[in-house]
């Protein structure tokens, strides 16, 4: 079991399915169990891809 | 919260929407499988911001909605037994069985508890050795690991007064059933991101290929959903039908292998009746014989249950994407969240509840023709 901070609410969560998860990492938690680790690098890369898309304001008329 | 609010950015949403508008040339029907995605789509008005060519239909991914009526009737009968402490997730309490629900059974004197996790039910069993504690284990591949670990722990600790009424369901067989239905309109699927977080997406390429449908693993925030739609539309326009992962910050191809391993240890596949839809082969999980002493269905046999659905409820058509909630004559009249005829009007993941709580009382096609219906900004 470990403590997980849900934006201010701290709950005891079973971490058995994420062996090796470290303090400070992010995880998806469902029904008291951490089920997926969040890959921060992938999150930032996704946001960069979106930011590189053409803005609707830049569209030719 | 970090890695949530960034994926609600209106400026980036505008870019994704512009990209979808640039890509689409003709009408397409997409289904978001998961009820969590349905609620996000309706709450953020994503369906109203999309170009009119892109239609979203809502899928069967609402766990309490598809839990079979006979299983709910069985739960009601067990909960009413003296000495039983019946534990359930909160959104199951108002789901109608045949003329009754868990909340009414509770108000009649039964000990029905809302739990956040099956581990809470196991803790209650250890605290109350004189009581029979039963957990209603419903849900998709996201919840099955929680039930599996709890049953496994109960066995290891020898907690004899604990059992589970297991009604877990799996997404891929439901996608197959919808895609192979002769009346199917769905041309691409947004697969449920958290289900794939557990199970990976190695079961999907064969589905995409055999049914010629793009499948895009999609997250739950507005930008995630728009990106899932953008990728599905791009594939449809290009005549492709493959599997893409648009939620790679959470989902890997293999998924969570330790969770899959314990699921396979505790559960075996079974045919499951989906409420409103019918039996889908190999779409459920039941406890393996090694865990039968923890199976509430076997511990508390109930006879004389005669499941009966209200005739006027069309939740089965809603769950299959055949109609929108507003096309059901009972929607908002004889069926409301306070007096629901079907589970889709109750659950936090049900499509009818999503429409009702956001004031969607008019079918979208009609709303769009109104001069002031075009949203000004996200």
User: What's the SSE pattern of chain A?
Assistant: EEEEH
| Average of per-residue pLDDT values of chain A | 92
Largest sheet of chain A: 2 strands, antiparallel
Strand order of the largest sheet of chain B: 4-3-5-6-11-10
Main sheet makeup of chain B: 6 strands, mixed
What is the molecular shape of chain B? globular
The proportion of strand residues of chain A reads 25-35%
A few lines on this structure:
The complex is a heterodimer of chains A (61) and B (378). With 61 residues, chain A is α+β, with helices and mostly antiparallel strands.
Description:
The complex is a heterodimer of chains A (61) and B (378). Chain A is of the alpha+beta class. Helices cover 20% and strands 31% of the residues of chain A. Chain A has a two-stranded antiparallel ribbon with strand order 1-2. A two-stranded antiparallel ribbon of chain A has the order 3-4. Chain A is built from one helix and four strands, in the order E-E-E-E-H. The mean pLDDT of chain A is 92. In chain A, strand 3 and strand 4 form a beta hairpin. In chain B, the strands form two sheets. In chain B, strands 4-3-5-6-11-10 form a six-stranded mixed beta sheet, sandwiched between helices. In chain B, 39% of the residues lie in helices and 19% in strands. In chain B, helix 1 (10-23) packs parallel to helix 12 (222-238) and helix 8 (144-157) crosses helix 13. Chain B is α/β, with parallel strands linked by helices and 378 residues long. Chain B has a domain at 65-170 and 257-299: 3-Layer(aba) Sandwich (Rossmann fold).
